[in-house]
């Protein structure tokens, strides 16, 4: 296969000349192709077949030094350093190109170069965007098949539109000293070397659909966000669409696949997306969302019949597991699976508890979104869905209440900009450290956060009926470390308050940080909570919030003159309200 798009044909030739592969394979996205790549990887040992209750499921063990995103090796290469902002690592484009050309030179010798045309979003959506990833990893090719609309239809759209994001990837020698994830937003180009891990290697996902897309979205007047999209249908049949931004491994997949508990009779939840949303204002001023992805690359540990039986069942067939353990019966195993025992750990060694967890804490599953029993067919609607509320959240042991609502859009932008969360195993580095993660986009915004906030604020001038903005925290704990809120399916109780607020049907009290429910406003019927837990979850400790506001102010000031004045105003109002 080749292409009638000359720029693409030329680029493939140029990259083949540079990287010197033994073969070139244009991916058509067919089932037969998927199966033949799997068979080939089984033969080389890059994949292991899983058994037991798992059908057409495979395990891939990545290099032990290559198990998560590498934020310190991820760069945004704009011609002007300040365009990348303090939120990104920056390298001059020419320097980055030279460095990467050196790494890519001859790197595919003896390997196959895969050309992967893909479309982010429904293939016929005006909001969708295409890309082409060149890679020497068959693992990347099979994952891209599940995660994106990959193959012939995408190539046809590229040939029709004439534009695409270029992504060049090689696993190289997996040496962490020779690992870089480079973004050139001005050229719609990504270059990634030395990692085979998801966010570093599946270039359609974080690199394209967030970093490059956020840069394009600013130029074109839309938003590319680290958000799930979920449909909530009330017993009366009213439907609301919510978009929620939580940092990595902080509950997006689980909220997007929420299973209403028995006490919430009549409520229905359907999934549109679990990680990324592209948001556009339509001609009526309504914010609409599409999910650019077609699959889930989800956190495995913690998935069980109690926390989320849909997710648990969804990954029993046609799934790729990365870095889980296996049982003696060759079933995948992970911490908190609650059944079976590990025999071999994620590194392929006999399991021994003194070596740490059996599955890597950032072990992942890849599945097509269509395997989700609550998949919404609207995920294929080219027009997307109308968003009623935007929800920000983080993993905060203390301080942040279960839920609160921003006063208006501008205040909501401050709430988003002030998000902080405990770090997780999704990125290399220390886990459990609270850091600022504005809009859950710290690792993913392809330009200066100050400009990003200005872009968010500009929406208030373009529409009178923007979504309401909320903040949630499922992760508050008591002094003994016990989660105060049951979470998972019970989060629906909080979403109900959010929806009622959007419909002006629920009460709230105004506090210094925004509108909070009274304990009685959240349905706790049938919940096994201790007396006082709900009051604690909804309490605002003024002294701690004063400190938080000061810390947020310091953080915002680190963006200097570029910080939008209206955001600084909102922050001043917060400090005044806290006294
Ligand atoms: P990324 O794919 O990294 O962007 O993560 P995500 O935001 O989709 O996170 P995910 O839903 O996979 O959850 C990550 C971890 O948090 C899992 O171990 C879950 O079991 C746990 N988790 C999710 N929701 C809740 C909740 O409501 N309460 C508690 N206590 N834990 C949760
Ligand atoms: C995240 O880290 O936020 C993920 C997983 O969704 S990855 O695609 O690897 O970035
Ligand atoms: Mn994510």
What's the short version?
With 579 residues, the chain is of the alpha/beta class. The protein is built from 16 helices and 30 strands.
What does this structure look like?
The chain is α/β, with parallel strands linked by helices. 29% of the residues lie in helices and 21% in strands. The strands form seven sheets. Strands 1, 4, 5, 6, 7, 8, 9, 10 and 11 form a nine-stranded mixed sheet that branches. The longest helix has 17 residues, at 204-220. The structure holds guanosine-5'-triphosphate, sulfopyruvate (SPV) and manganese (II) ion. The site of manganese (II) ion has 3 residues, from loops.
Taking the alpha carbons of the first and last residues, their distance comes to 67 Å
Q: Which band does the percent of strand residues land in? A: 15-25%
Cα gyration radius (Å): 23 Å
In quaternary terms, these chains amount to single chain
On the 0 to 100 scale, the average pLDDT is: 98
- Bound compounds: guanosine-5'-triphosphate, sulfopyruvate, manganese (II) ion
**Helical residue percent band:** 25-40%
**β-strand number:** 30
Tertiary shape: globular
The largest sheet is: 9 strands, mixed
Given helix and strand content, the structural type is alpha/beta
Q: Helix tally?
A: 16
Q: Which consecutive residue ranges, at least 5 long each, have pLDDT under 50? A: none
């Amino acid at each position: 296969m080749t292409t009638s798009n000359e720029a693409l044909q030329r680029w493939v030739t140029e990259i083949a000349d540079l990287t010197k592969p033994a073969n070139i394979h244009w991916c058509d996205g067919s089932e037969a192709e998927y199966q033949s790549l799997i068979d080939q990887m089984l033969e080389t040992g890059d994949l292991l077949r899983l058994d037991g209750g798992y059908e057409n499921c495979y395990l891939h063990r990545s290099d032990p030094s290559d198990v998560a995103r590498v934020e310190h090796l991820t760069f945004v290469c704009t011609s002007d350093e300040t365009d990348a902002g303090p939120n990104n690592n920056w390298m001059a484009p020419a320097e980055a190109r030279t460095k990467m050309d050196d790494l890519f030179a001859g790197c595919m010798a003896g390997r196959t170069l895969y050309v992967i045309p893909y479309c982010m979003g429904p293939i016929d959506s005006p909001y969708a965007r295409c890309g082409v990833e060149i890679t020497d990893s068959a693992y990347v090719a099979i994952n891209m098949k599940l995660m994106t609309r990959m193959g012939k239809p995408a190539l046809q759209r590229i040939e029709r539109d004439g534009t695409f994001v270029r992504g060049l990837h090689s696993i190289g020698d997996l040496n962490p000293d020779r690992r870089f994830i480079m973004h050139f937003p001005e050229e719609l180009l990504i270059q990634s070397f030395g990692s085979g891990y998801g966010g570093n290697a599946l270039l359609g996902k974080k690199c394209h659909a967030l970093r490059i897309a956020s840069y394009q979205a600013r130029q074109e007047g839309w938003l590319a966000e680290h958000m799930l999209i979920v449909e909530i249908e009330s017993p009366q049949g009213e439907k609301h669409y919510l978009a929620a931004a939580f940092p990595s491994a902080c509950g997006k997949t689980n909220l997007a696949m929420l299973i209403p508990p028995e006490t919430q009779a009549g409520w229905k939840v359907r999934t549109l997306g679990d990680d990324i949303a592209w948001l556009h204002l339509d001609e009526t001023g309504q914010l609409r969302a599409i999910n650019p992805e077609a699959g889930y690359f989800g956190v495995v540990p913690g998935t069980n019949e109690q926390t989320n039986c849909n997710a648990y069942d969804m990954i029993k067939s046609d799934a790729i597991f990365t870095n889980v353990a296996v049982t003696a019966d060759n079933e995948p195993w992970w911490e908190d699976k609650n059944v079976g025992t590990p025999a071999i750990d994620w590194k392929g060694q006999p399991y021994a508890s003194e070596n740490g967890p059996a599955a890597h804490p950032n072990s992942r599953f890849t599945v097509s979104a269509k395997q989700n029993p609550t998949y919404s067919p609207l995920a294929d609607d080219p027009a997307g869905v109308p968003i009623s509320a935007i929800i920000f959240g983080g993993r905060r042991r203390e301080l942040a209440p279960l839920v609160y609502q921003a006063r208006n859009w501008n205040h909501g932008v401050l709430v988003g900009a002030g998000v902080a969360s405990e770090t997780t195993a999704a990125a290399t580095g220390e886990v459990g450290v609270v850091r600022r993660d504005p809009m859950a986009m710290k690792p993913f915004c392809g330009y200066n956060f100050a400009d990003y906030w200005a872009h968010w604020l500009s929406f208030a001038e373009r529409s009178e009926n923007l979504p309401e903005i909320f903040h949630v925290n499922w992760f508050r704990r008591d002094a003994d470390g016990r989660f105060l809120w049951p979470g998972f399916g019970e989060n629906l109780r909080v979403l109900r308050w959010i929806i009622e607020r959007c419909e002006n049907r629920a009460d709230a009290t105004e506090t210094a940080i925004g509108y909070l429910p009274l304990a009685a406003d959240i349905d706790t019927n049938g919940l096994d909570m201790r007396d006082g837990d709900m009051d604690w979850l909804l309490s605002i400790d003024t002294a701690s919030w004063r400190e938080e506001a000061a810390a947020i102010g310091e953080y915002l000031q680190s963006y200097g003159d570029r910080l939008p004045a209206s955001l600084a105003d909102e922050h001043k109002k917060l400090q005044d309200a806290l006294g």
